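Researcher: We're teaching a course module on how sequence relates to structure. For the next exercise, students receive a sequence and then see the predicted structure as tokens, so they can try to spot secondary structure elements on their own. Here is the exercise chain.
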Amino acid sequence: MLALAFDTATDVTTTALVEDGVVIGERVGVARSLLEDVDALLDAAVRAKTSIDALVVGTGPGSFTSTRIGLAVARGLGLSLGIPGAGVSTLSALAASEPGIFPVIDARRREVFVAGPRAVSPDELALAAGTVCVGSGAVRYRSTLERLGGVVPPDDDPRHVPHAWLHARLAGGYGPVDRIEPVYVRVPDAEASLA
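Model: And here is the predicted structure for the students to work with:
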């Protein structure tokens, strides 16, 4: 089975082609170049879009707009190609990079997204000494997490990236792409303003 996986929930977008568990290719970029990255992966693998059997998309939590971009692309591709999809939490993908990893995604507003999922101030986290923290929130709040006993790898460590091939590895329960739901944790700003 050839799966196209991508995650746009954070500032770093990852896209991967995975066939029967083997990574054929991966690209790292930004959400606005997602379709270009998909085309580049297919070209490099000498595959047509019609050869994709399933989609895997990151469901967040993360940036509201970026998460919506990923879901919209997944729905558009899935419906146009007539293929199923699966959603995988961005936190789960980060955690899958290594046993014992604690994923921390920058939630803006001086908060981070962590398992639960929930949004909290980095100062509210209770970390066991030596806990390895990864993700955009770990990089941004390095000093706070290290003061709390966490260990944050260097900024360029690949464990900080929600690799799309990890999403493909975690995916299960493929179904209609229009049923994949985002994980927002918080109410979108526009809805909060209306309330």
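Model: If you want an answer key for the exercise: Residues 64-81 form the longest helix (18 residues). The CA atoms of residues 20 and 125 lie 38 Å apart.
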